[in-house]
Amino acid sequence: MSKIKVESLTxxxxxxxxxxxxxxxxxxxxxxxxxxxxxxxxxxxxxxxVKESEIFVIMGLSGSGKSTLVRLLNxxxxxxxxxxxxxGKDLAKVSDQELRTVRREKMSMVFQKFGLxxxxxxxxxxxxxxxxxxxxxKARAEKASESLKLVGLQGYEDKYPDELSxxxxxxxxxxxxxxxxxxxxLMDEAFSAxxxxxxxxxxxxxxxxxxxxxxxxxxxxxDLDEALRIGDRITIMKDxxxxxxxxxxxxxxxxxxxxxxxxxxDVDRSKVFTAENIMIRPETVNVEKDGPRVALQRMKKAGxxxxxxxxxxxxxxxxxxxxxxxxxxxxxxSDLRPLVRKDVPTVDADTPVHDLLxxxxxxxxxxxxxxxxxxxxxxxxxxxxxxxxxxxxxxxDESIS
Amino acid sequence: MxxxxxxxxGEWVEAFVEWLKNAEAIIGALRAIIGFFAEDxxxxxxxxxxxIVFILALTAIAFLLVRKQKQYGLPILVLVGLLFIENLExxxxxxxxxxxxxxxxxxxVVIGIPLGVWMAKSNTVQRLVTPVLDFxxxxxxxxxxxxxxAFFGIGIVPGVVASVIFAMPPTVRLTNLxxxxxxxxxxxxxxxxxxxxxQKLFKVQLPxxxxxxxxxxxxxxxxxxxxxxxxxxxxxxxIGRQVYYAVGRNDIAMGFEAGICLVILAIILDRLTQxxxxxxx
Lengths: 401, 281
Known about the structure:
The structure holds 2 protein chains of 2 kinds. Chain A is an alpha/beta fold. Helix content of chain A is 40%, strand content 22%. Chain A is built from 16 helices and 16 strands. In chain A, α5 (122-133) packs parallel to α7 (166-179), α6 packs across α7 (166-179) and α13 packs across α14. The model of chain A is unreliable at 393-401 (pLDDT under 50). Chain B is mainly alpha-helical. Chain B has a single domain (10-48, 88-280), classed as MetI-like (MetI-like fold). The longest helix of chain B has 35 residues, at 197-231. Chain B is flat and about 60 Å long. The mean pLDDT of chain B is 91. The A-B interface holds A 71, 74, 76, 100-105, 107-109, 111-119, 128-129, 131-133, 176, 180, 186 and B 183, 185-186, 188-196, 199, 203-204, 207-208, 210.
């Protein structure tokens, strides 16, 4: 069942939008209209349906009109033409009063730069949507702490937004959106301002939350990887028009035109993984300051039988074995140097995964991945190689050491 | 030579001011209201308090403001500065001047903030009001004294009126600026959660603009203070009049004493309002 139905939605920025509409009907392009009339077509006759409780991703490069499109849905920008049907009402035509009711009860929005109120505490930020509805203080506080709990931020109620990291601020943004218990979540580049590691965490968290919440989510992004990761269906936009709508599979296997194809190529290229993409962060000991006891302790804690040894600048020296180290501890030795074995399997960071396969199957210890000056960047274990080759997406972010 | 006779701008304005005098009821009401605040509220209250109590109370307020930062310059400044003015025997004049400044500031804020909000909401209003504000600030302040006297006679009321005209623009401008500077995303957030325009203004825009607006109010206080000497020319009492007398009599000692009192008052008001602004930011 479709939750949102958008019909021929159009936005023209300029003084005489009606004139531009006529030109659009005559199949003129965005550039021609700009030249002829000086008006900018933000969104050009977009039509699509969003099904109940799906994640619908709208993706496009900057200037493609995706942010305008999402703002037409909750009318932060008034459409020039077309309809937005939500539960049998055309939001493009409802009164301000009705629009406010929809915004308060049905649709929440999460913003790229979080859009938090800096002078309010986290608690009071999350309460904002309920506060403008006139919900009483106690019920407000209850709902706010419920939704802060959902995003894992209990205990931060009395902090201010600028005391939190970017990822945490966006969790607050999400909590604020959830506090209203809306049917629809509009997320405008919600994770784009976060660094890659945090972004991936947030994507996972959104997917986890969605499992239980079953909201209808319209998610805007310029990042195809993100779109493929979280989208049930993806819309690709260019110059204000919708180019293709489909499942991730359909988009990848059957691009509608050259433009989509070019996007998809980028994805294929990224699937050619190198050692750097699949390596994980190693446990190491520093030969300059750590002795056998520390090495033994770390191995015990990580549950491994050997540990890489590096120098002060993280340059790779070799590897020590748990048996040798425990013997050294018993003998009361304090230096690791005599125990280090130097014959370790080593590859460069840009070695393709394919070339790692043989090495990983014969090597008795994880393969060391080194960069400049033999600096130890990470290690590769056999299961990483197999996963990468089997085509599952390997997350390169986790491996940064 | 007489091809282009002089345009009688001055005469037109004079005629306009004469015509305005017909609005006697309004002028009378304004005079009553301004006089009430300046003389019956502020001044009457201030003179009731013994100077030493006044000084200690203000010092205590200043101390409370800076208590957390542990920088005690401000309370010391207030204590020493005010005791010095009292010692020079300018206390009564100080109270009159302070009443004038506070009344002018109060009126400026009451008119200026709504006007600034209106300017921020409408580009048309901004286009219309901005040149008027420029005019109010650049016209030599003396010139306002002439119609002020014509309408309100002499004394503290025309002084307040001239001060308001001269001192209000920063409050208006910075209210407008403060609201316009609120990031789009924050405005969108307040709208996307279903705020009414009124909720948006009071719950988001004004709190976001507060620091900038307070900087405007601070400027307004300073400008009002700079008007008190000029207002003395039309018989407004206070420290300004002592300065004005001193100029007339070429009395260096008196001129310096009155002048330094004004400087101290200015610094105290400036630092106090700035500290309050920082504290609430």
